[in-house]
Write a structure and sequence with these properties.
heterodimer, A: 349 residues, mainly alpha, ABC transporter involved in vitamin B12 uptake, BtuC, two-stranded antiparallel sheet, 17 helices, 2 strands, B: 297 residues, two-stranded antiparallel ribbon
Chain lengths: 349, 297
Amino acid sequence: MSKNILLYSAILIFGLIAPFVFPAFKVQLSILCVLIVLATTWNIQGGEMGYNTFGNILFYGLGMYLCASVQVGMFFPLAEWTESGGEKTFVHTPAQFFQGMAVGLVVAAVVPTIVAGLIGYAILGLRGHYFAICTLGLGVAAGEISGGIEIIGAGQGFTTPPFPEVGGLEARGEFFYFLSFGALILTFVAVRAIYSTRFRLILNAIRDNEDKAEAMGIETMKYKIIGWMVSAFFCGLAGGIMGGLVGYIDSTDVAFDGREMGVFMVLMAILGGKGTLWGPVIGATVFHIFKEGFWTFFLGWQYVALGVLIVVIVIYFPEGIMGWLREKYPEKFGEVIDEEDRKAQVELK
Amino acid sequence: MDFMVFQYPMITVQACLDGLLLGILFALIAYGMALQWGVMNIINIAQGDLVILGGYIAYFMYLYGIHPAWGVIVSPIIMYFIGVGIYKLVINKVVDRDLFISILATFGISILFMQLMNFAFGADVVLANSGYGTTMLFDNNVTLPNSKIFSAVISIVFAIGLVIYMKKSKLGRAIRATAQNSRAAKILGVDTEKVYAATFGINAALCGVAGALISITFTIHPYMGLPYTIRSFMIVIVAGLGNLPGVAMSGMGLGVFEEFADYILGTEFRIGAVFLLLVLILVYRRFKLSRKREYLK
């Protein structure tokens, strides 16, 4: 146990001093935090519950639009802002900016949770690939529809309020870094707490055999909806932060970006290992380092590399890093191996 | 919201005719999807990208001075080998696995194809001009491009040809046997691996035909693939696997729905309407099935 505390405090300290030690990587680190949040929340569905969704991007994009709209709409007319370059006419004072951001983030987290609860009953009754395709459709539909709504910028995009003139670029980076790091800590602590209760066992039961779980007296639908609401909450929060960080929201390229973020979260969770607490964290970190390190070398071939990466990971590495470690060092995962049994198994092969 | 389409009967007729002709094309793509879904139990997200690739083959023939209608012959032949290649490289490793694995793997192929096509052919919206002219109906109130009629006829010919091939030929019988029970087929001497490859190839060839026709009648763009996948998926789940008249009917129904959505909601919501319809159909299906389950209880 003390080893765990040491590890957690090391990560916490690293997270707190990181922006000052590596000032050039602040934005990258903030994006990494958001990616970890997304992968972790995807894992609640895809890993623990066995409901492989492409649709969590819906909550991410919703949170992004909501946070920016609230931040603007609290003080200025939203339609004029988005019409053309409203950010040049209206300027947020620092107090307005931070107030708007705080309220915006709360709204960005709460509304997707409610949406998830409302559509959950209808959508989560679908099984297997029907669920996967349905959520894929939801994400794309949201992108297409939000691209046609005038008040949030339609096709030309939505510029989020610029960071107020206090401390300049450094302060902006630090602000968003600590915001996303805070979201990461919140998500990790919440998910860890959830995973240590009976709730995780119920989710795993649903994954392993939903009909049997129902026969055992578990109200599967209730738990599925709660699980989805939890991940919608954190997805919306991450979306709100990411919107402010990027500074510009476009319906299909930034917010409901099923081709990038929507696939990334699935890929990161699978790369790290589905159904583990640390898997998505490791997967997101490895993926982000790989992406930032090599993306520039591909020079426009990024999506080709992404496509190949998806195919290779899915076909040859479906268990992920944690699964591979577990296979290699089962003792570390608390699995006791009977030597005689292993020998017998090897002989059988 | 604009209900003009219901106020003028000629526009209604126009929308219905356009939708029906478009729907026949959708049905052809969906037929390929139903085939591979039924035989290999794989949902191919890259279906739409195969369609677009087939369209680019016809478009290139057009660029080099050959009439794009010949693409209907050339494109399926090339696409057959591309399909077999994809099967040998990727699909044969995911056939027996979890369905989600195949969805994700084909999603990767889809992204790969999208970007490769973007590099090879550019990000412009293109069409191959067939020069077939238009037919005017009802005192010039309804315009009907002849290319659309051509594409509908060709689709029907290919679909009927394939049905006959599946019924009569040896390979067709082997494919149907594998679809019914792959283990039993294997025991009886069917080389299921070859059957799977051929099925995927035939599916890709059908996509090639549809793509060539789409490049003549509509426009193609490297990123337009996913809506075709979703449409064909939708048609297959509405019709059910192995129900060919159903596939044709629901394809045409979808075509008409799209044209009406285009008129009523505006063109910018057209794709959104298709994806929402998919969600609604799946949700409706889920409630229908759960009512059935309760009834059985």
